[in-house]
Amino acid sequence: MKMKKLLFLTIMLFTSSLAYSTVADYTFSSSTGTYTEISGGTVSTATGDDGAENISLPFTFNYDDIGYTTARICVNGWLEMGQTYTGNVSYNRLQHTTYKPFLGPLWDNLYARGAPDNTEIRYETTGTAPNRTFTVQWKNVCWYNSGSTVNFQVKLEETTNKIYFCYGTNNSTESRSASIGINDATGGYGHFISVTPGTPPTSSSTSANNGISTGSYPGDGAIYTFTPPDMVYSSCTTTQDNTNDVQPDITNQEIIGIEIVTHGSTNPLNATSFTLNTTGTSSTSDIENARLWYTGTSSSFATGTQFGSVVAAPNGSFTITGTQTLTGGTNHFWLTYDIKTNAVIDNYVDAECTSVTVDGSADVPTVTAPAGNRQIKRLLIIGTGTSQQFYIPSRFSSDYGWTATIFTNSEMGTSMDITKISYYVNNSPSNYVTNNQKIYMCNTNDVVFANADKPDPSLMTLVYDASITWNGPGWHEITLSTIFTYDISQNLMIYYENRDGSGASGYPEWRYTSTSSNYRAKHRSGNYVFPTSSGTRTYNRPNIRIEYDPASAMAYSSSTTTQDNTNPVRPDFTDQEIIGIEIVTTGAANPINATSFTLNTTGTTSTADIENARLWYTGTNSTFATGTQFGTVVAAPNGSYNITGTQTLSCGTNHFWLTYDIKPGAVLDNYVDAECTSVTVDGSAEVPTATAPAGNRQIKRLVIIGTGTDQQNKIPFNGNYDYGWSATIFLA
């Protein structure tokens, strides 16, 4: 467990306050040159009176130690860095704490009238990286709505991060009250530079000149330059932003972050060395290939720019060296490990940073061992969408509900014993209690939901039956009370029942990923009673995280023989169901095969009534069907016989079915029947628990007309009345 160093924290706070950034530290200078109008690039949509446009910058521009990638152009003579302020203010006040951070070459009530004055605002990028220049130009804009026009530009210079105000002609003579200068993201006194034109022009960070008139307009060819201060090192620290579990056999897993804070951007400094260690890692045998990555001033982890070279076998203290030019502000570095394929489940991985070298000087981070670590788990995440919905896994605004989702074997990837599932809560519920929650799972051959019918939980495994208290945002983990073995030969269905009985506000909402044109989710909710009718199919399936153990090797558990159908059979009918044989297996890894069945005709009155004994396989589906035949036909079954073949089994109960063809001359009222005395599974012969189930089928002449399953109470008679009549016609 890591110890926080409170003394270092105190020092960090004090040091940071000393190095607090402000544009007042910029150097102002003036010069003259030739005003060069731009004609390429893009014409801005900022037009008319107070028009504005949000734009993307062509490069990250570091302004007052903040990296900006967007800006906002306004007719009123200012360029906002970023797009935090969304207005179009003409009321010029450099010291304002709302209108910021602004670059104002001529901030006043200006007007882009268009055709009458040949007015336009245009922006253009010139040069090649890393030495590009981005220019915004105000051409022939009116100072107020007088018809008097002015011309000026703002230029942002890549790498040096210098700002230039360039001035062209001015034919206005009226009295005006503009501001010229810059302010930062904090705003207020001490956070601006106000320029007063003159010979020479002057600047102030304590007194804002917001009354510049046409007579004080900088001359044609005037250039005002704002140069950021020289870079100085401020502080560094180590962070632990990600404490989510990690998986074996995954590369570049974020372990810790290292932040180096600098102030200023002129004459930038270099980071050249990081001393790290594996403290907190349960076993260095779990990890390899330590790497350091740099994301500039972006605080989002990424593996785009590597610092130094890889440390193949990190163990204890190690050093990564290289050269990375720093940016003004907070610079982010990230240490990653590759997690080995055979990493031990439930072990932890962690690290510390004990030293960074900047500008040739080694410094100890304020925090070297941040709290937290990452645990090694077997995890499967299906779905990366960030949109949210409130109805799957359950709609808790209603009293009751059910939902079902399918995850395909291509998504599951391998057989597994599922121990936990998690849904991603996208909002922020706090201790939202839901009682009487039931979760069922089953292996299924269904790839999509063909209809919106409610699934039958009696055909599934109940894996959770308790209350759940939801919090968010983030993954909400549910530990299953019964481990479920998923078989890769099929797909996974999760069926969820909310039987709380009391819907309430403040409910969780979940992230989902669309399954496009495939219906792999359905739901139904209701109040007062639990809904049992059909629901609604949807493509919006919730993201899920599955924690699992490797599936145990498949093993034979038991077998038995069943007699599910004792209805009469008719002469001259083929593939009539006689008995069922069930083989139960456990585990899903390394599936085993059924290869032989020993059967006999015991219970059949006369084998002269039957022919063509066949065996069929329906997987874990307990409904008789003749889709997949096992082995070959036995043309004249009589007494004991064997049917051999190879059928790979699924985890759970596997269903086989014996059928006979009933001959055209079969004797009426005779019986047909069978027994199964042995099954061979994984090379071993096993005797079923029941070999001769009770029941048989009698041969009868039968005509069945109608196969519908709907019901009515009128024909043949209506039991609600004392008397009645009905009539039906059956066609020849």
Radius of gyration, taken over Cα atoms and rounded to an integer in Å: 39 Å
Number of strands: 51
Average residue pLDDT: 94
**Assembly context of the chains:** single chain
Residue runs with pLDDT of under 50 for 5 or more positions: 1-20
Major β-sheet profile = 9 strands, antiparallel
* Backbone shape: elongated
Tell me the structural class: mainly beta
Helix proportion range: under 10%
Strand content: over 45%
Number of helices: 2
* Distance between the amino and carboxyl termini: 87 Å
How would you portray this structure in words?
This protein is mainly beta. It is built from two helices and 51 strands. The strands form eleven sheets. Strands 1, 2, 3, 8, 9, 10, 11, 12 and 16 form a nine-stranded antiparallel beta sheet that branches. Strands 4-5-6-7-13-14-15 form a seven-stranded antiparallel beta sheet, with no helix packed on it. Strands 33-32-35-30-37-38 form a six-stranded antiparallel beta sheet. The termini are far apart. The relative contact order is 0.08. Mean pLDDT is 94; it is low at 1-20.
